[in-house]
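Hi R.,

Quick one: here's the LuxR C-terminal-related transcriptional regulator sequence you asked about.
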Amino acid sequence: MKKLEQFADQVLSADSPQAAWEKTIGFFESFGFKGAVYGQRRRDVVPTANDIWFSDQLTEWKAAYFKQKDYERDPLFIYAPNLPSQFMTGIHFLPDHAYLTEEDIAVIRRAEEHGLTSGIALRMSREDDPVVKGWNLVSDLSRPDIEAVNEQFGTLLHICAAIAHHKIGRLENLSQASLSNRERECLLLLAKGFRTARIAEHMSIQAVTVDLHLRNARAKLGARTREQALATAIVTGRIHL
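And here's the predicted structure, written out as tokens:
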């Protein structure tokens, strides 16, 4: 219970998808995992690189994964809807998945080439959901060792993965919220170096109204400060300098 409480406190207090992601990855690694993959795939659409996140420790595998376009054939997303919400993955568990094709097995063997031989998949979507969403916690552990981890901590890992899934999704939706014309104008003037009083004078509004617009922009963009809101608005294309 203590681990769950600590994890929930850390992730739920995160103010950006990246912050929630980093806290989640650190938590998973504390159980002996090499890293994690989080992704989604519409059943009728081939996913793209933007649909799948890799933790930083998996850089080499990530490069090979995208070079080979393994996301088009990753068994995790193809078969997950027909499997339990939590199941074992990796080369050590091939005998448990007799339905896999040669193409599927090739994806798994390429992961093995990067030292990733076992994992725990955690499906976040319902069986009938048109979008398959989930985590794959990957490791170099032997079959007995990762089975022991799953036996002891499997429920905890699934609960924490679900917390992170919902938190990251909520923050992403928040950051995708559209800005009003006034909010964009305030941010653009902020980018020019204007302070509150000058922004108010330029826009012919009260300073308190400027503060309100910028506060709303921060909330929509998941930013703590005006500067963070401005940076996020620029990076995400909400405003153009």
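Residues 143-175 form the longest helix (33 residues).

Cheers,
M.
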